[in-house]
Amino acid sequence: MALLEILDIAKEYHMGTQVLRALDGVTLAIERNEYVAITGSSGSGKSTMLTILGCLDKPSEGDYILNGKDVSLMNPDELAEIRNREIGFIFQSFNLLPRATALANVMQPLIYNGTPLKQRKARASEALRHVGLGERMDHLPNQLSGGQRQRVAIARALVTKPSILLADEPTGNLDSRTTIEIMKLFDELHAENQTIIIVTHEPEIAAHCRRIVRMEDGRIAEDRMNARVAAGGAAHAAQEPRQVQP
Amino acid sequence: MIFDILESLRAALASIRAHGFRSFLTTLGIIIGVAAVIAMVAIIQGFSYTINQQFEGLGANSLTVQSYTPLTERLQGRIARITPDDVELIGQRIDGIAYITPILYSQNQLNQVRFGSQSTATQISGSTYTYPEVGRIYMAAGGRFISDSDNLTRRRVAVIGDEVRKNLSLPEDPVGQFIRIGEEWVKVIGLAEPRGQVFGQNQDNFVILPFNTMRSLIGNQTNPDIFIQLTVSDIDQMEAMRERIVTLLRAAHKLSSDRDNDFRVQTSEQLTDTFTSILSSVTLVMGGIVSISLLVGGIGIMNIMLVSVTERTKEIGICKAIGAKRHQILLQFLFESLILCLLGGLAGLILGYGIAVAASAAIPNFPAAVVPLWAISLAFGFSALVGLVFGIMPAAKAANLDPIVALRYE
């Protein structure tokens, strides 16, 4: 059985008298340990896909089965619990709590599932070490670089051991060098069997993924395996001409 | 649930600490309101304590008779009086009186006392041997109070307070010295023990003469106004005696049935009741003012909390995205306003107590400020109520934010 399955979902937004159909009958199944890119130009419905997949919003029509549970029937608090347990969000603008340290930011989601303080600290520092930020736990977000902030955000997403890591343009605010570092981190996480979905409009980012779903006008226009990555790492290196040697 | 409460408390405290100065300004309304309550209660408690002390000496079995002129009559130039004849009449006609103590206070022209070259102004009154019961004075060793025979023979003798002794530079034991009141030489026969001050009024600045001596000093032709203190032998007869005195005095003063009494006969209980009712109306008025200030303080808290929710919309969105449930957000904001109010209440309590202590120190002989437990719990209870009532709206607003909208908020 697929990890997540959306069946003929639609999402409509009402703007005054106009009805905007952002998603128009999308069916998609993602298996455990997949590394998927959802691409498309702006207005293609990929952001709406993200909010639906991330359980931030419910579809107007259709079903969404996540880990065997029908999410489309849940109330806001049940959705919050699903977001907490099943989904790790990574945003373009990091979305860290500005007055909390890196460690406190990573501990935050554990508060919502009732983890005691000691365990929270232990698990959060472990997650920070995992993303290579073991030395900067006590820094506030504004004392960290963009790449470091995104690492904190990734640690926060990972700390609850979610079924899916859901990233929205994770490198959109980063320079090219940091972009490479962050994408390398995603690749490593994928190698550790983490299911990852990245919503992006950048082909270079999508190229890291094993599967690329291209959206157009609220529908899936193309759903293909990424042959070059599947074939091996050589093609991958050739695709990154700006790579800086460490 | 306990976990959620603890975590919400932690988050609320962190947020209050992060905005220290703003938190202080937010609670200022509550601080002032609670400080006002506490200071007011402490001062009024002090007042009623002092007043009760004053009336305690009158005893439960005593009645007072004094003249009373209604304002309309006073405007017509009629001044009511209790005359020496009234005193005699009551003494003769009413049964069951243990003591009758007339007190005649000096008129303005008769309050200068001299000794040698020293001169001082004081309260001179005339009374009888029962006065110590009424006036709560105790004689210092070596002297005596006025006796009945002093009164009957109009002896020129006086009992003086310690303040008078000091002002006149009389010796430590002034018994046997002669002082001058007006043109009369009066022999000091006793010194009263010092009583200190009440409301800044020195209680030792007095001279007491025998009642009849006082009358003759004033001059018998003038009709002095007398204050009468009665002690009844049977306390159950108080009310009946009160009525009999009223009937007697109405007849003596020839009051037609359509006219009000031109005097008042009161039990000591009635006197304290009067003060208590004055105090409680003062308390009510002050309470009204104070609750307005707490209301304004509460609105201030709500205002800042609403601003704070708007300001932190993005943060709330982030928390919701990573799994915060509605009640978790609600509790955090509710606790924030609750803690702000309780901290304000605590600061107000300390400030108000400080004001009360300062006030009681500034007023001489005012009893030490006492803040009763009920006032403390009232202040805290009210602060908590304000925090809950005015915190619930901003907290609900935060809890019900749509996570997508909140996340996109800039």
Number of domains of chain A: 1
- Name the CATH superfamily classification of chain A: P-loop containing nucleotide triphosphate hydrolases
pLDDT below 50 for ≥5 consecutive residues: which ranges of chain A?
Answer: 231-246
Beta-strand content estimate of chain A:
25-35%
How many angstroms separate the termini of chain B? Answer: 32 Å
Largest interface, by Cβ-Cβ below 8 angstroms: which chains and how many residues each? Answer: A-B, 27 and 24 residues
Radius of gyration of chain A: 18 Å
Strand order of the largest sheet of chain B: 4-3-7-8-6-11-5-2-12-1-13
Structural class of chain A: alpha/beta
Mean pLDDT of chain B: 84
Q: How many β-strand stretches of chain B?
A: 13
Specify the biggest β-sheet of chain A.
6 strands, mixed
What fold name stands as the CATH topology of chain A?
Rossmann fold
Which percent range describes the beta-strand content of chain B?
15-25%
The geometry of chain A reads as: globular
What percent of the residues of chain A sit in helical stretches (DSSP H or I)? 25-40%
The number of helices of chain B is 14
Structure description:
The complex is a heterodimer of chains A (246) and B (410). Chain A has 246 residues and is α/β, with parallel strands linked by helices. Chain A has helices spanning 46-53, 76-86, 102-112, 117-130, 146-158, 176-191, 203-206, 227-231, 233-238, and strands spanning 4-15, 18-30, 35-39, 61-66, 69-70, 87-90, 164-168, 195-199, 211-216, 219-225. Chain A has a 6-stranded mixed β-sheet, sandwiched between helices. In chain A, β7 (164-168), α6 (176-191) and β8 form a beta-alpha-beta unit. In chain A, α3 crosses α4, α3 (102-112) runs parallel beside α5 and α5 packs parallel to α6. The N and C termini of chain A lie far apart (42 Å). The relative contact order of chain A is 0.17. Chain B has 2 domains: 2-54 and 274-408, no CATH class; 69-261, no CATH class. Chain B is built from 14 helices and 13 strands. In chain B, the strands form 2 sheets. In chain B, strands 4-3-7-8-6-11-5-2-12-1-13 form an 11-stranded mixed β-sheet. Chain B has a two-stranded antiparallel sheet with strand order 9-10. In chain B, α1 packs across α12 (326-362), α2 packs across α12 (326-362) and α12 (326-362) runs antiparallel to α13 (373-399). The longest helix of chain B has 44 residues, at 268-311. The chains are: A alpha/beta (246), B alpha+beta (410). The interface between A and B is medium-sized, with 27 and 24 residues.
